[in-house]
From TrEMBL:
GO terms for molecular function: copper chaperone activity; copper ion binding. The lineage of its organism: Eukaryota, Fungi, Dikarya, Basidiomycota, Agaricomycotina. SUPFAM superfamilies: Thioredoxin-like. The keyword Metal-binding applies. GO terms for biological process: intracellular copper ion homeostasis; mitochondrial respiratory chain complex IV assembly. Disulfide bonds join 131-135. The gene is SCO1. This is Cu-binding protein. Signal peptide: none annotated. It holds the Pfam family SCO1-SenC. Its main location: mitochondrion. It is found in: Mitochondrion inner membrane. It comes from Pleurotus ostreatus. The chain crosses the membrane at residues 49-73. Cu cation binds at residues 131, 135, 222.
Length: 267
C-alpha cells in the first residue's frame, strides 16, 4: 500500500510512524531524573549559610551592640554640649584685661588710686557733669542698683564716677553734681593725661580734646558702660546702656554668690 503513496502523502505517513515509535519507546524506558547542577547547589548552600548566621542569638547581640552605641554617642554628645556651654560661660563671665593702675583726685582734692578700691566691689562709670541726659540716666540706674544690693549684701559696694571732661569738671564741681545720686558715690577727676590713662586702662573711648576750653560749650562723646569690679580689682562684667536695672541686679547677685562660694566671703 505504501508503494502506492507518493509525494506529500508518503512523507506525512513516515512522520506519523516516527512519532509513534518515539512515544512508545519513551513510555517503556523513561529518562532518569536530572540532578541539580553543582553550580546551583553551591549557590543554594551559600544562601542557606548566609541565612543561618543571623540566628536569634546573633540578632539579640546585634540589637545590644546597637543600643550600646546609641547611648555611648548620646553620652558623648552631652559631654560636648556641656563643654561648649562651659566655654560660652567662660567667654561671657571671663575676665579680660580691663582696669589697672591710675591716679586721680577726689572732690576734696585728695589723691585716689586703684588700690583704694580694693576690699570692696565697685561699680565704675565714666561720664561728665555737663552731659544733658545719658549720664544722669545711667547714674540714676546705678543709684537704684545700689539701693537694692545694699539691702541684700550690706555696704560692700563702692559706686565710682570718673570724669572724661577734665577741663570743666574740677573736683568741687563733681562733688556737688553727685549729691543728686546715691550717697556713697565718689567722684574722681585728673589731668588730661591721667584721664587718658585711666580711660585706656578701662578701654573707654572719649572725645575731649587736650586743649578744651574750660568755659566752652561742647559735648563729650564717650563709651556708656558700668564696669563691675571684684574686691581684688578684677573685671567681672560691663553693663551697657540697654541692660535694665533688674538684669544688672540679678547679675551682681550671681557674681557675689560665685565669689562667696570660691573665697568663703563676700569681699
Amino acid at each position: 500500500m505504501s508503494s502506492l503513496l507518493t509525494g506529500p502523502a508518503l512523507r506525512a505517513q513516515c512522520r506519523r510512524r516516527a512519532f509513534h515509535t518515539t512515544f512508545f519507546r519513551s513510555q517503556k524506558h523513561p529518562s532518569p531524573p536530572q540532578k541539580p547542577s553543582t553550580r546551583a547547589y553551591s549557590q543554594f548552600s551559600r544562601d542557606r549559610a548566609a541565612v543561618g548566621v543571623f540566628t536569634p542569638k546573633s540578632a539579640a547581640l546585634f540589637v545590644a551592640v546597637g543600643v550600646g552605641l546609641f547611648f555611648y554617642f548620646r553620652h558623648e554628645k552631652a559631654k560636648l554640649l556641656e563643654q561648649r556651654e562651659q566655654e560660652r560661660a567662660a567667654k561671657q563671665y571671663g575676665r579680660p584685661k580691663v582696669g589697672g593702675p591710675f591716679t586721680l583726685a577726689t572732690p576734696t582734692g585728695e589723691p585716689f588710686t586703684e588700690k583704694d578700691l580694693l576690699g570692696k566691689w565697685s561699680l565704675v562709670y565714666f561720664g561728665f557733669t555737663n552731659c544733658p541726659d545719658i549720664c544722669p540716666a545711667e547714674l540714676d540706674k546705678m543709684t537704684e542698683v545700689m539701693n537694692v544690693v545694699e539691702k541684700k549684701h550690706g555696704s560692700i559696694f563702692q559706686p565710682v564716677f570718673i570724669s572724661v571732661d577734665p577741663a570743666r569738671d574740677i573736683p568741687s564741681r563733681i562733688g556737688q553734681y553727685l549729691t543728686d545720686f546715691h550717697k556713697s558715690f565718689i567722684g574722681l577727676v585728673g589731668s588730661y593725661e591721667s584721664t587718658k590713662a585711666v580711660c585706656k586702662a578701662y578701654r573707654v573711648y572719649f572725645s575731649t580734646p587736650p586743649n578744651a576750653d574750660p568755659n566752652g560749650d561742647y559735648l563729650v562723646d564717650h563709651s556708656i558702660f558700668v564696669y563691675l569690679m571684684d574686691p581684688e580689682g578684677q573685671f567681672i562684667e560691663a553693663f551697657g546702656q540697654a541692660v535694665d536695672t533688674p538684669e544688672v541686679i540679678s547679675k551682681i547677685h550671681d557674681a557675689v554668690a560665685e565669689w562667696t562660694k570660691e573665697h568663703g566671703k563676700k569681699t
